Amino acid sequence: MLVSNFLIEVTYLKDRVVISPTSRQEGHAELVMEVDDEGIVTKGMYFSITPVRGLEKMVLSKAPETAPVLCQRICGVCPIPHTLASAEAIDQALGIDIPKNAKLLRRATLAAHNINSAAIHHFLIATDFVPADLFATAVDSVSEVRKTVQYVVDMIAGEGIHPSDVRVGGMARNITPFAKERLIERMTALRPKLEAHIELIKNCVVEKGLPDDLGVVNQPLLAVDPLYGVNDFDMDAFSEVLPEAWYDDPEVGKRGCSVIPLINGENVETGPRARMEKYQGFKGKGVNAQHVARADEMLKNYDACLAALDELDTSGSARADYDPRGTGELGFGIIEGPRGTNAHMAQVKDGKIQFYSAIVPTTWNIPTMGPATEGFHHEFGPHVIRAYDPCLSCATHVMVVDDEDKSILKNEMVRI
Amino acid sequence: MVLGTYKEAISARSTDSKILDVSQDGGIVSALLCYALDEGIIEGAVVAGTPDEDWRPIPTVVTSSDEVIAAAGTKYSMSPTLAALKEATRQYGLEKLGVVATPCQVQGLRKAQAYPFSRFVADKIKLIVGIYCMENFPMASLDTFATAKLGFDSLTDATKMDIGKGKFWLTKDGEDTGLAIKETHGYEQAGCNICMDYVAEWADVSTGSVGSPDGWSTVLTRTDDGETVFKAAVDAGLIETKPMDEVKPGLGLLEKLAKGKKDKNGKEREKRAQMGLPLPVEY
Fold this sequence. Notes:
The complex is a heterodimer.
Chain A: E1 9-13, E2 16-20, E3 29-35, E4 41-48, H1 55-58, H2 66-71, H3 79-93, H4 100-124, H5 126-129, H6 132-157, E5 166-167, E6 170-171, H7 177-208, E7 221-222, E8 229-230, E9 238-241, H8 243-246, H9 250-255, E10 260-263, E11 269-270, H10 272-280, H11 287-311, E12 330-337, E13 340-349, E14 352-359, H12 361-369, H13 381-387, E15 400-401, E16 408-410, H14 412-415
Parallel strand pairs in A: 7-11
Antiparallel strand pairs in A: 1-2, 2-3, 3-4, 5-6, 8-12, 9-10, 12-13, 13-14, 15-16
Helix pairs in contact in A: 4-6, 4-11, 6-7, 7-11
Chain B: E1 8-14, H1 17-20, H2 28-38, E2 44-49, E3 58-62, H3 65-70, H4 85-89, E4 97-101, H5 103-114, E5 125-131, H6 139-149, E6 160-164, E7 167-172, E8 175-180, H7 181-184, E9 205-208, E10 217-221, H8 224-235, E11 239-243, H9 251-274
């Protein structure tokens, strides 16, 4: 559910504001803010209340080709980064060097998807930033942008959501010269609309006039590539702690549903702003900067998509032959998704998946988002959270059923 | 109506010798597709080709008249044509698509169009050319007819395959050898025995040899789109026509065979229903 239309519970306990679940994001999370007498946040804690992803366990002992098919279902908002990360992790775990054309097709797919996802986020934050007289314009603009970039994903990857044609070893097939020409034609026609869209969103953010230092954090940046990703991950720098050990409040620690991933022992910031600062010379931190960076990155992705399409040789193969037995080594698929770095890891031996793990973008940001609310009035809290475009649905909704009579013992996670 | 809903029944033949040289009968399927492609009514079509010339039909996406003509001629084994639709509407980038389909495949296509089932596939289908079909044979059955029943060394020796005048025909070195249709019974796909549709009742245009003289086809125009394309191809001089009541054996034979299929397979359906077996819904 993209827009939470159920009752959002805002509880004012003594010195504490709780928003549960936080709204206009994918999935369910809770924001706990301790406040002083003026309502200024002195401590912010943000944690996922969406439990049990399960998909990493479901793929164990299955054929390697199963992973991209199942693991793309981690999320319907960014299924493309999950499919790509999964396919790339398996490619590496099988020792496959995919053809150049497959790389170009994957790049074009991700770039188009990242534009789409940023546009969806603009729809989600429209009520925060877009004035009433521009609302219809903004919504139309989001639709126009999405229509073209989703068309690109449809054509290359088979489906705009949960792509069928990203395969282990490359892509199901190359596109025809006719399709390439048509895609370039549609994307070329999109440029003025996209530029106007970016301008519109950035202007709305400026006009809204949120404090410039709202949401500023100084955490290390996590980004592995300006636009696409790599097959390498520094496991020595990486560690995970359980929420009980991370959050000071034992109740929050108990209810938090995601582990806390750290780089060199620190929580990080990932996402468009992190990428833009690290690779594109972007300046500025905090909520406003995050929105501007996300909008500006759309054009970077646009150029990347067209460049990949231009370079594509439609007569060449887009899929490698491979040995499905596996190398036994850990393979990495690290993809720069709309919300940040999406890391999938897989190990394949004797033709079966032995190990699978995914650390998805919002999981990295979760420990950073709570503290980012600190120092401002709690009413700014939701703005800070939404600037990260959090996506927590990477979960399987489970219920507890009595073994004997099949009666449902617990289902609160299905209801939310 | 045993022939389903149709606007007009007419006997027709392509005027293009390139098509008639390779077509099964009157070359209507090829002529319609070539016309629709040249006029931009469709950007491509999914047809049953035999790229290896071994009689095994392979769903093939064609985007030019030359490719249409290269794929001309009836194949008597099943082509999983619908499986290529997605590729045609994706990596081929086609947004206006023609399909040549057997009656059962046309039913599937119409269901796909009626239900929101095949995202951005069914909505791109602009022309469905249905072909008359009594039954269809697995490749192993065709091999058996050629080698065990007609004494060929191999099915690939045959240069033409046809069903007509009560026989299954194979041509080798210019000579036709026939096998009585009753000899083929039991070799067809099991599903064909419960199919009630001989004349692709849900197509835009249906065509096949039955009812018209040798080298001609009987055409049933069914939908507005189908009628428009057919008439335009006639007006453009690509197809010549004769009224059905001026040709032999005439529409009566087509009706007789269509009714025969419904009667025979209707009984088989009743038999299967009595045995408690599931049956597809028939429209």
